[in-house]
Each structure stands twice: as structure tokens, then as C-alpha cells.
Model the fold of this input.
Amino acid sequence: MSPSRKKTAETKPAKKAAKSAAAAKKTESKKTASAKKVPAKKAAEKKATPEVYPGETAPERVIKADFRTVKGERSDVWRDCVGAGRIGEGLRDTWRRQLAKCKKELGFRYLRAHGLFHDEMRVYSEDKAGNPVYNFMYIDDVFDFLLSIGVKPFVELSFMPEKLASGKTTIFWWKANVTPPKNHDRWADLVRAAVRHWTERYGEAEVKTWRFEVWNEPDLDVFWDPGKKTTMLDAYLELYKHTARAVKSVNKAYPVGGPSGAGLDFIAPLVKYCRKNRLPLDFISFHQYGFDPENPALPKIDRFGGNYIYLMKNLRHVADCFNKKLEDIRGNLRCDVPVYITEWHASPSPVDPVHDSYFAAPFILEQLRNTEKMACMSLWTFTDIFEECGPAPRPFHGGFGLMTFQSIPKAAYRAYQCLAALGPTELVSSDASSYVCKDANGGVQALFWDLTHPTQGGRISNQDTFFDPHPAGDKGHALFSITGLKAGEYDLRVTRIGYRAGDAYSAWLEEDGAKTDISREEIARLERVSRLRPMYRAQVTVMKGEEFQLGLDMKQNDVYFVELIPLKK
Done:
């Protein structure tokens, strides 16, 4: 029971069932919800039950809402867009099947990827006389697929075709050229031809809904090398001018923006440059990751040859950075265009095990809960079919993806799956790290999580923490409480994401010995391990005017998803 002596929904272990039943009889007249025994046909689904805190102990955390107190329409900024490594990977069947699964279960609307004009797509070449030759067949194949599953292109206009490039500097295993065009007019002609081609193929009405982003992270010298005759900023502004005008020359309604920065330095100069030169700027885009670039231990090489990465002490650093810059854009720059976050994650490294860990689930939820003023929060990326550092070396290797190369969903994927299952109307919640929502059928969904720093405030590297098993410590008790429910019978379902729950990575570490080669049977088993299943399920009765309460024990970095589904009479 709770400190107020109100009865909580029965969630005690089986050995305490008799005691629970007796308690229920004593409190039938009180204004609290009661739980009924799980039907026999559902017994198989009841794998385990969460512990309810003792009645004498106050909960350390309360998530309280009222069914009648509406906050508003639930934000779905999180599903606006998702990233992918490069467009060329979209020619592969497994990549497509994974994105189709993400679209079906998570609902992403746009996809952004590097390498649209990379030579592997054979977009630009020249004949013997040096005249441009365009070929959009490979891009068409990818864009056709995207549109067939209801995903729109967020068109990142990069990188430089070799025949157009002013230099030889490349990045990534797949050799993306990061130099400016040697002839800006020819670059603009390429952009114009591509946009005109897509207009003819897909129609003006469709392409008006796309977004055109100029380059990727031109504020980093590894992504933008204009040589010594100019500055990185000046060279980017010149590129932006020619690119934006080329897009708008096809249709003035097509959105174009940038600077797609790794940081914030290019935003103000771009806004001022566009104003001065009367250039279009329909949106601002930039990136942020949750690592500490100033950690004195960097660079240090981990056991697999990658650099050690350290989390920021402030686990809300990503969200705080975005919100601070949004205030600057709206206030000091007086710019009211949409702000698209086109890359973000816990770490900027594609070989950082933090991405595989169950910790990624509450980390992602905490950022998304606190960035709803953005127009887009595009996680980088949906898949580990991603080859910036070359082909994936192991099933779990710290890739950015929500799914592994073998299509095993990670805990991060399951966090997005819970977001997708929330009702469309958000209720006011007493807890900042939670969503409480309702649907049109009178059902309620509560999603709440713990976010505990896993690396002693960033003093220990992600590699030293997450490459090995990392069980979660206790984090006390939580109470979910809701009033104002319609009287009736409800199907109560409690699902958890955390250590060994929706957590295939820990199973791979502990049961499979973190081996590189896993069989088809082992892949299938890990996929099953990753699935979301109610850890507790029961039928509960809510009487008129009753307060429903559910007590749960929490581990560090647990995520709980609670559903109350009205049962038809």
C-alpha cells in the first residue's frame, strides 16, 4: 500500500498473492483501483512481476496525472526525420528492409544521408570534350524506394564529384571528396539539373515538401577543405550562394537551408550573409553530440583500435545546447525559420559502445523530452549498415544505428517504439522525465525513465564502461498515479527497457561471449531477446472517482512503459 493507505494495483510476486487478495477485500470501499488475477490464457505473458514498494515506505519518485487535465497535442518532433550513413547504402536490400520496419513501427517521415553526389552514385561525369554528363538512375532507385514506403528525402547536397572537385582531400573509408567545386557554375548546373529532374519525375507538389540542405559540417576541416587561399567560412558562404540560387531557380517554393554545422559558429554568419545578399534561408540546421571533446584523456586508443570517448558530465548537454542556440536564433539573430537538428546522438563515434547499451534508451528519451521546440530531431542513424570507418567488424560494435547490421533492434530502438505507442493527447505530468498520454478510446499510456550517469560523471571512458557487461544498480521506487479515469475494466500492461530487458547487447556480451561470428539461430534468439514484452499484465477495475496507483522498483537507467487499455463490456 501507499503511504496514504490507498491500495495500489496488485503487482506483487506470486508468492504474495494471497496477502494481496486479503488486502484487496479490506479496501474494496476505498477510492483506489484494484487488480484482478491474470486470465489463464495470458499467463504465459506474465514472465515476471515488478516489486511494489512496502506500504510504510514513501516512493522516491511520483509520476502523477489527471485524465481530464490536458497539456496538448503530443509532440512528434522525434519522428520528423532519421539519418543514414550514405545514399549508396540505400541500394541494399537489408538496409531497405530495416528502414521499412522503422517506418512501419516508428513512423519516421524523412531520411537524411551523406553522399548524394558521391562518385559511387555515378551522378556526374564528363565526355571527351569535357562537357557535363548527368546520370540520376541510382539516386532515382533510392528515392523511388523511399517514397514507396512513405518516407521523403531530406536532401543533403554533398559531397563533391571527383571531376568537379578542386582538390583531392577525402574523408571516410568510401572516400568522400570534401573540397569545393573548381567551377561554381558547373556545380550550380549539377544542382539545378538534379532538382529539375526530381521535379519532372515526382512532381512539383511532392518536391515542395522536400528539404535541401547545403553540405555537411563545413565548420570541420575534415568535412570542408577549401585550401589556403580562403577561409572555411568564406568558402562555404560562396558554395551556399550558388547552391541556394540553383535550387530556387527551379522552384522558389523549394526549401533550402544550412549550415548543417557540427557546432554553432557558422549559424550567425550565414544568417547575416543571406540577409545582406538577399539569399534564401528557409531553415537552419546544425548538430550536437553528448561527448566531452575537452577530456584530457583524449586521444587514447581502445582495445579495438578506436578512440576513447567520454560522456559529458551534464547528461542533458545535447538538449541544453539546442535550446540555448534556439534562444539565440530567435532573440539575437531575430530569425524565425524552422530549426532542424539533422544529427545528434550520445557520441560522434561510429564505434562507441554507448550506442549499443541499454543506457542509450533513457539518454535519447531525456533529450527528446526537452527539445520539443525544434522542428526536427533527426537521430544519427537508423541502421548499423554504415561504413564511414569501413564494414561493420562485429554484430555489436558501437554503431550509431537503432538496429545492428543483422537487423537486431537495440534498446534505443525500443525507446522509439514506446514513443510511437503513446496516445496523441498529452496530459500534464508531475514528473519532468515522463510522458503521460491518452487516446481516443479512453486508454492511458505512461512512459518514464531514470537517467543516471554511467561513467562517474564522465571520468571513465565509454569503452571502459560499455564494452563489458554493466548491470544496473538500484534506483529506488516509483509511483505512477492517475485520477479521472472512466469507471470500468482495464487491461494493465507494464513493459520495461533496461539491463536484460529489451537489451540484446547485454545478452550478446554475457551469453554469446561477444563473439564476432553469430549463427542465424543466435541472431534470431537475440532478436527475440530484444522484443518488448509486458513484464506484468493484469485486469484491473477502476470505480468511479478512484485513483489508480502502480508502484514499481527501478534500476538505474530503466525505462517503464505502462498501458491502461479499456476493455469492452
